[in-house]
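Comment thread on ticket #2218

A.B. wrote:
> Attaching the input chain for the structure job we discussed in standup.
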Amino acid sequence: MECTGHSGEHYIARDRSGYWKMWRAAVGGGLLTVITAAIKSQLVGAHRPLFVEGFLIGTDYAIPFVLPQILHFALATKQPSMTAAAGWAENFLVFNRISHALVQHPLSHRFGTRHMARMAGWLERNATGWSNSIVLGYLHGLTPVIARFFGIPLDVRHVTLSTGWWPWRRRNPVSTPSVTAGYIWPSPG
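C.D. wrote:
> Ran it. Output below, let me know if you need it in another format.
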């Protein structure tokens, strides 16, 4: 299988300045994780209907998974998915020459070829990160809801966010079964 993608290269430091740039990016990612954990704590504590809770938690995961790409932050747990060979969205774009198709699209007569080329470049640079982040976020948030619908006591945890959420949970234990049933963490008590 040929790899046609090139995402994840920004997770590799090649010199001392690259190392410190990565370190600052990691601090930003860490702060974003703390904020995300605090928001999740509030969402779970609100005791909304299961689907609404799952959707909001999925959004709480998806947005912070996309923001590091926009703000040039880094999370160690995102590195494997970003450097994995042949990201599905990027491979689809490259293999099907979507960028070329955008530039050649009839809308280029209205908006200009240069504008369409900039849009195609943006799509090439961001499609993998955005698509993977959004899908992963909603899978984290909605999988437990769908499993509970079928009577399966399943909970999904993102290791970084679960670790960041632990101090919030210890201060304000919640009684939502999907959180406190002891699947991953023991119930408070």
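A.B. wrote:
> Thanks. Noting for the ticket: The mean pLDDT is 78.
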